[in-house]
Amino acid sequence: MATVAELLQPVEADLDALLADLRSLIGAGHPILQAAAEHLFAAGGKRLRPGIVLLISRAISSDGELGSRHRRLAEITEMIHTASLVHDDVVDEAATRRGVDTVHSRFNHRVAVLAGDFLFAQASWHLANLDDLAVVKLLSRVIMDLADGEVRQGLFRYDTGQTFETYLEKSYCKTASLMANSAKAAGVLGGLPSNQLDDLYRFGRQLGLAFQVVDDILDFTGSDQQLGKPAASDLASGYLTAPVLYALEERPALAGLIEREFSEEGDLEHALEMVRSCEAIPRSNALAEGFAHDAGNAIDWLDPSESRSALLCLPEFVLSRLY
Predict the structure, then answer these.
(1) Cα three-residue angle 9-13-18, rounded to 5 degrees
(2) What angle do CA 277, 281, 284 make, to 5 degrees?
(3) b/e map of 276-310 (b: 16 or more CB within 10 Å)?
(4) Is the pTM higher than 0.90?
(5) Diameter of the chain by CA atoms?
(6) Do the Cβ atoms of 200 and 192 come closer than 8 Å?
(7) In this structure, are residues 246 and 282 in contact, taking their beta carbons and an 8 Å threshold?
(8) SS3 string of 260-280?
(9) Where are the alpha helices (DSSP H) in 192-277?
(10) Beta strand ranges found along 24-173 (DSSP E)
């Protein structure tokens, strides 16, 4: 299966330009904030989110060329994503991300919180300068959703009474909202009719949900290497994801271990065993496949192009991380 870099190949030059532009956009304002931001952009993320914006922009453009506003939208998308990672790492107290020290472990918590705020503020400023109210609304909503998702995740820790709906809403806020709203925003800048805008939104939403469910499955099936963090770290932190919620239906005894926050010797191992030995993982796989399938169907109306082909491969790519 192709890597992210191979899939994003049609916009590879655009993504290189994007990184150079991000450095100049962030400007030489405050050396520490600059160092924190630089450090993250240099940490070599997959750049999947701006890549999606650029692929959609090229796929809907009449001559396949990119306008400056679409480029700027991709940059704003990456800034928002990066800002959310900085804050996530502080909340999760993660020491590394993508094998690189996190901002707060390299500087301190205060700098990390401010660096995240700084990036959100930069994104908002550049967003306002696009002078398109509909796009401002779509991406401001994302910044609200990211905070909302983080708060929800904290509120429902170790809560075995939460519904599947709660889990999906949190996943939407944390992962899918940025993909959905930035995809739709690319369509708004491209002047598409509302039914196609809805389809682009659906593509991003379903792809984002598939992405999150796959991540949640890998927490149980992946190696520490693959995950870049210890396996089952979400469960240990009390975050109940699709595999756990499905397992609770089949293994009611799991609830007791979670409610006592794995306080007794062997609780976490026992809980892991319960999740892995029932239908929870296969059911979660099927859920991710459903979302991925929907994502592909949402954009089958795009005209044939290299960018369209790359977009249609993304749902398969997301699922391929499972195998």
Answers:
(1) 115
(2) 155
(3) eebebbebbbebbbebbebbbebbeebeebebbeb
(4) yes
(5) 63
(6) yes
(7) no
(8) CCCCCCCHHHHHHHHHHCCCH
(9) 194-221, 224-227, 233-236, 242-250, 254-259, 267-276
(10) 96-97, 100-101
Q: Are 140 and 147 spatial neighbours (Cβ–Cβ below 8 Å)?
A: no
Tokens of 205: 């939403």
Please give the radius of gyration of the chain, using alpha carbons only, rounded to the nearest integer. Answer: 20
Provide long-range contacts, Cβ within 8 A and 24+ apart, for 63-66: 64/305, 64/307, 66/14
pLDDT in tens, the chain (323 residues): 678 889 999 999 999 898 888 877 776 567 776 776 666 666 656 789 999 999 999 999 999 889 999 999 999 999 999 889 888 878 777 777 767 777 777 778 888 888 889 889 989 999 999 999 999 999 999 999 999 999 999 999 999 999 999 999 999 999 999 999 999 999 999 999 999 999 999 999 999 999 999 999 999 997 655 555 666 789 999 999 999 999 999 999 999 999 999 999 999 999 999 999 999 999 999 999 999 999 999 999 999 999 999 999 999 999 999 98
Q: What is the CATH number of domain 4-315?
A: 1.10.600.10
Residues in the chain: 323
**Structure-token pair, residue 66:** 């990119």
Question: Which amino acid is it at 53?
Answer: V
